[in-house]
Amino acid sequence: MKQDYDISIKDLSVSYGSVVALKNISFNIEPKSFLGIIGPNGGGKSTLIKALLGLKKPDSGRIEVKQGKKIGYVPQFAEFDQRFPISVNEVIMSGVIKGKKLTFKKYSKEEVEYAESLMKRMDILDLKDKQIGELSGGQLQKVLVTRSMVSKPDILVLDEPTASLDVKVKNEIYDILKCLSEDITILIITHDIAEIFSYVSSVAYINQTLHYHGSDSKMRKNVLELTTGCPIEDLMINEEALKKEFMETEDKYHDQRHH
Ligand SMILES: Nc1ncnc2c1ncn2[C@@H]1O[C@H](COP(=O)(O)OP(=O)(O)O)[C@@H](O)[C@H]1O
Ligand SMILES: [Mg+2]
Questions:
Q1: Residue 114, pLDDT above cutoff 50
Q2: What is residue 236's predicted lDDT score, i.e. its pLDDT?
Q3: Whole domain around residue 133: which residue ranges?
């Protein structure tokens, strides 16, 4: 990589059998950027993350992480089984041994103290000894974000961390992420079009191809124009239309999957 990028994506194409999920995606992600990845459901956002994590092999092109950079990952909410009998503290501390072989290793004093400082910052320290089944959706998301951070990642990747949370908790999580993004690189997949622009430093709109990637002050306008296909007279109205479109696409996707 010529420049100092954390992640470099070049001509990336990924498919599942005959389904093309991503086609010729190219862009770079600079250190300490806070990137919002948006686009309709089925647009290939999660696939991009899977390729980044090495969980899905590209057909062609490449997606490279700068050497030595450690990635933390918060998977999509639905992938986590909340019935599993485990405490908040155990979930968070399990982030420490991520990547290593699971043993009955004791955590160091530093590791425990660091985890507690993060819990404090997330305002979940009082939940420490609760079972995860007792948590609200918002609390569980904060626990998963905290877990992804105990290993001190350089790059934090979150796949729809605020889906189905109320606005208050959403903004709390975004506030924390924005604060973290002063020190690390953050990639967040989200449908929160109305809120996300006030937090992120750049946006990538992905629908099989990369339709837009930018960090200028006009990114909000550009994305909205791109999606609605018309100049923006009234941002609020179009934002509502945009959200509606997203919801409908999502419903269709779920209908397809479950019927
Ligand atoms: N495991 C899979 N097997 C087959 N097709 C898949 C699989 N995962 C995703 N796809 C398809 O790839 C496309 C992109 O999906 P995905 O990356 O999950 O999109 P997004 O995260 O933007 O909703 C969709 O057409 C989806 O149906
Ligand atoms: Mg997804």
A1: yes
A2: 41
A3: 81-153
Mark whether 139 and 182 lie in a shared domain: no
Do 203 and 240 fall into the same domain? yes
Residue 209 covered by a domain: yes
- Closest ligand to the CA of 48: 1
Please say whether the beta carbons of 103 and 97 come within 8 A. yes
Cβ(43) – ligand 1 distance below 6 Å: yes
pLDDT tens-digit series, residues 64-86 = 999 999 999 888 765 667 778 88
Around ion ligand 2, residues with a beta carbon closer than 5 Å are: 46
> Using a 6 Å cutoff on CB, does residue 46 contact ligand 1?
yes
d(CA 31, CA 149): 17
Give every CB contact of residue 139 below 8 A, 6+ residues apart in sequence.
124, 127
208 Cβ inside 6 Å of ligand 1: no
CA gap 149, 93 in Å, rounded: 10
What is the predicted pLDDT for the residue at 195?
Answer: 81
CA of 210 to the centre of ligand 2 (A): 15
Q: How confident is the model at residue 19 (pLDDT cuts 50, 70, 90)?
A: very high
Q: 81, 78, 83: which is closest to 257 by C-alpha?
A: 78
183 and 213 belong to one structural domain: yes
pTM, full prediction? 0.82
Query: Residue 170: is its pLDDT beyond 50?
Result: yes
Ligand nearest to the CA of 163: 2
